Fold this protein.
Amino acid sequence: MFCLVAILSSVFGQKTITIGIFTDNQYCNCAVTGVRNYPASLAKLDSVIRFFNNSKVDAIFHLGDMIDNNFSSYDSVIPCYRKSAIPVNFVLGNHDYAVRENQKEKILPLLGLSSGYYQKIVGNWEFIVLNGDDLSFFGPQDKIQKQEINSLLTELMSGLRKNFMPWNGGISQFQMNWFKAQLREAQQAGRNVIVICHFPVYPLSSYNLWNDRELISLLTRYSCIKAYFNGHYHPGNYGFYKGIHFVNFSGMVNTTESAYALVTLTSDSILIKGFGREPDRRLKIGQGE
Ligand SMILES: [Zn+2]
């Protein structure tokens, strides 16, 4: 009977999958500052990679800010990621570009990426990764991106919006068009989608992506989107809006205690098993917590 269920599930692409999630380990060779324990990050990183290897996860996503600053910090963290049995999918965070201007072009190749935004399909689930550094004060910017930043920030400032902050970023119109095309394709193919970005868009906060409103109005037009995962705000957060679960995973760098999660995706649920400071969540697809 179990065998029949497994066969039917795989035929219809409903295989249960498990992914490993961690974020904001934000390593640097710096002293502990407030709640941020930078030196402890390396041991936490080493142990989470060993844990994911033993858990035989189907995919791993790091939601951004793998370093705090200084290009040489990558020399310490990259060897930890190389111990992973499967490649880690990196999401770009604001601190990942906290390096000298002439070192910024080295970041994508270093992380094995040809673009900061991409998609990955596992079973019947599609993970669409967005690059929130696309419009920002840290990521590399061309003339068109700079113009888009100006108009976006003028709008945020005049609306006295909370997320008008230099540590946030935004999605360019070019990337937005790519994202819309991915969503149309996923919806037509009948796949479930989880959107992943370093920056939150919901609930409203001073950590949100600059074009959070534009993104939310787009997300809520696609019934294939079941959740939005992000980091950036280290204490973590959760919201539910128009059928979408918005999960802000806790930042690993805070305190001596780690934070990471195993996320199991079934045909009707998103089950988050949190470790350390990350809470457990049993999320029914399409229903609030
Ligand atoms: Zn961040």
Observations:
- The radius of gyration is 18 Å.
- The first helix runs from residue 2 to 11.
- Residues 65, 93-95, 198, 232 surround zinc ion (CB under 6 Å).
- The domain at 14-284 is CATH 3.60.21.10 (Purple Acid Phosphatase; chain A, domain 2).
